[in-house]
Amino acid sequence: MPINHQILLDNRPTGEASTSNFKLVKNELPELKANQVLVRHDFLSLDPYMRGRMNDSKSYAVPQALGQVMGGGTVGQVLDSRSDKFHPGDKVVGMGGWQEYSIVDATQVGALRKVDTTHVALSHYLGAVGMPGVTAWYGLVKIIDPKAGQTLLVSAATGAVGSAFAALSKARGCRTVGIAGGPEKCAYAVNELGFDACVDYKLYQDAASLSAAIKLACPDGVDGYYENVGSMVLNAVMPCLNAFASIALCGMIAGYDGKPVPMSNPSLMLLSRLKIQGFIVSEHMDIWPEALAELGQLVATGKLKPRETVAMGLASAPEAFLGLLKGKNFGKQLVKLG
Ligand SMILES: NC(=O)c1ccc[n+]([C@@H]2O[C@H](COP(=O)([O-])OP(=O)(O)OC[C@H]3O[C@@H](n4cnc5c(N)ncnc54)[C@H](OP(=O)(O)O)[C@@H]3O)[C@@H](O)[C@H]2O)c1
């Protein structure tokens, strides 16, 4: 059996996460038992939620256990199988974690899913046609529930979730505005992702000046805001919301390394009769088939062209993950393993 390199959570961060929180180890894989499948991972997904799991604090999910392989989404290929449900060569998506191979119990419902790579590249099943894409779909369709002609705004606009949001929002006839960090990301948002406008939040020192820029980009106000960031960005968006606006509260990445993300003027929630709802996409498995069907169609027809930042080799995962938390990624952050 092959040697498997793995990255474990070695210790928990205090404040900012660092590469010293992780440990690279290697182990020989055991022989397969009945119903087990050996998968070689081609790509590992790096996602902001992993930062929350590194802490041992109140959360919607159990913390990542110390000394265990970091959890994470993977796509790859079946190498060997002692299950009649999977065969060598099958392309599969699963939660293989930060390691080169995984052994999966094929009797566990949903642990491994075969995917078709005829029209959609394997890696996109970790991004636009995977969890981040479905996340965009849920917040847009089930929380914001937009009408054609409305103005929708999304932060972290060029990331995995934000870019899928743009394609889904444009498909519903909405004016779609992004907020992203830096001129390159904003130009890409408009020229490649189909945003009608994009505001570079890094140009502004405070919420009031950012708010003025958002108002210029959204002359009819904001009917639906898809929140990925929190902090100054949220405080800048609040005064731009129209009456009866909605916020799909998806993430607050500005606070994941422990910085506070205060809301400066909560009374604006009342003034705009705001609906604000947080959600966790894995708690809504019933909508995944419908969302994946639409996202797969958008990618297969070229209406959504997902961009990826790919780090090479398992050992590069910790550094790439820390970069994701600082906006160094451009589009979906992956690690190439196979
Ligand atoms: N609720 C759920 O079920 C669920 C599921 C998946 C993801 N999420 C959330 O969705 C959000 C986007 O996830 P993603 O996978 O698509 O990541 P991503 O957007 O591909 O990457 C993260 C981006 O966040 C921005 N960012 C990082 N630190 C920031 C800061 N301090 N202030 C402002 N922006 C910052 C950066 O973009 P800029 O360079 O443009 O700033 C960075 O590229 C995250 O908040 C994540 O936790 C939630």
From TrEMBL:
Q: Name one Pfam family in it.
A: ADH_zinc_N
EC code(s) of this entry: 1.3.1.-
Q: What class of enzyme is it?
A: oxidoreductase
Gene3D superfamilies reported in the protein's UniProt record:
Medium-chain alcohol dehydrogenases, catalytic domain, NAD(P)-binding Rossmann-like Domain
> Which PANTHER family does the UniProt entry name for this protein?
PROSTAGLANDIN REDUCTASE (PTHR43205), PROSTAGLANDIN REDUCTASE 1 (PTHR43205:SF7)
**Transmembrane domains' residue ranges:** none
Domain of life the protein comes from: Bacteria
Record's protein name: NADPH-dependent curcumin reductase
